[in-house]
Structures are given as C-alpha cells and as structure tokens.
Amino acid sequence: MINEEASLPDDVLATLPGTDAVLDQEVDVDGERWRRTLIDRDLPAITGKLADGGRTTVTRQEVFDLGDQDPTVENAFQLLYYSLAWGLGTRASRLHQRLDGLAKHQNTASELLVSAWTAVRNGDPTAEAYSLLTTNRGGGRIPWFGPAFSTKFLYFAQGSAAAPRHLILDQVVSRNLRRDAWLQAPTAGWWPETYQRYCTLLTHWATQASESPGVQRTVRADEIELALFRRPTS
Q1: Whole-Å CA distances, 25 to 6, 57, 191
Q2: Which of the chain's termini has less CB crowding within 10 Å, N or C?
Q3: Whether 37 contacts 71, CB under 8 Å
Q4: Distances (CA, A) of 170 to 4, 150, 174
Q5: Largest alpha-carbon pair distance within the chain?
Q6: Is residue 1 included in any domain, yes or no?
C-alpha cells in the first residue's frame, strides 16, 4: 500500500524539472500512421497537426490545449488520440490492437470518455473519475485502453486552467516509487483507491517541495511525476 505520509526524497527534490520543462516535454509522433490507421477502422478522423501526416512532435501543452475544450464526443476522441500519441511515440506499440478495440466499442467508449472528462471538469474525486475508465480490479473498461492510458487521459482532460490533481501513473513511475513510498508497487492494474493514494502522495510532495528553502516557488505535482519517471533505477 502507498504510504501517503512518506517524505519527499532528496534526489527527487534535487531534480525537479520546472513547469516549463513539463509543459514543453515533447514526443516524436508519426502522424501519417495515425491518419491511415484511423481511416482503415472507420474511426473519427484525427484533426490538428497530426492530420497533416508525416513525422512531427506533440508536447504536453498541446494535449492540455485539447483538454481546455468542451467535453463533447468529437473532442473526446481527439483528446484520446493525442494523449495516446504522446504516450506511445513513433513506436506506437500495439496501435492496431488498441484502435481495433476502440472501433469495436466506439459508442461505449465515447460515453465513457465524455463521462470521465466531465467528472474531471466538475472536480470529482480522482478515484471516481478514474473508476469511470477502470474497473475496481484495475482493468480498462475500453479494450486495450488500460489504467496507464486512463491516467494520461484524465491528466490531460484537466486542461491548462488549474494545477493538476489527476496525475499520470505508469509502470516506470510505480517502479521508481518502491524505495520510498510503495514497497511492493505493481507495474499495472492499479485499483481506484490506489490511484487516489498515488495522486494524494504526489500532491503532498509538491507541497513539501514548494515549502523547501531552496525552491521558493510553487511546484506542480506533475513535476514530481516527471522527476520520478526520469529517476535513475537503483
């Protein structure tokens, strides 16, 4: 179980990237692959820079900009595409299977995505929003759209207006928390209450970092997430 009262590790505090580095973090994406794969499955077409085809980059800020829009079905698909593209990069592992699952359950997926986005927009507890996309046992409610990508969708659904409460959790971050606050952290299948504890911990650490004498600024919780993601394995 996650120890929500654990102290912020010194090495994480020393490697805080800063807000600009978080928002500017970019990932290489093959827009043409996305465009073709969506057309082949009769899914809604991708819009924006990825619609032009070819290799490009997507930043966190660009996906956040999509999260600033109204949570409609059309916008939810774009937010899903871009959050997946940012998370998968050019390698885009199992993209065909992921989009096959989305195509087979398109109506259900659209309802779940809009409901989750609306829950985030309404300020619902992180566990409740997460449980709209993930079962109580940590399985994805949309096939091939598991808990790690659920957390990415919820994270970007917050948009740019407020400090993030819903935070990205993946196998790298969970593994890098084992030495400090999550001794037996699983690398997949996190339960809603586990995700809630994780978000509480990182928010707690962001507060600690903000109050550190050597920092003297407001630290966002996603700075902690990125520092953990980049943390060298011991």
Answers
A1: 27, 10, 28
A2: C
A3: no
A4: 18, 10, 6
A5: 55
A6: no
Q: Which domain holds residue 139?
A: 10-230
Q: Please write the tens of the pLDDT for every residue from 166-180.
A: 999 999 999 999 999
Residue 114 belongs to a domain: yes
Place of tokens 């070819």: 54
d(CA 141, CA 147) in angstroms, rounded, equals 9
Per-residue pLDDT tens for 54-67?
Answer: 999 999 999 999 99
pLDDT tens for residues 66-98? 999 999 999 999 999 999 999 999 998 899 999
Could you tell me the pTM of the whole model?
Answer: 0.97
| Dist. CA 225–CA 11, nearest whole Å | 13
CB 230 within 8 A of CB 15: yes
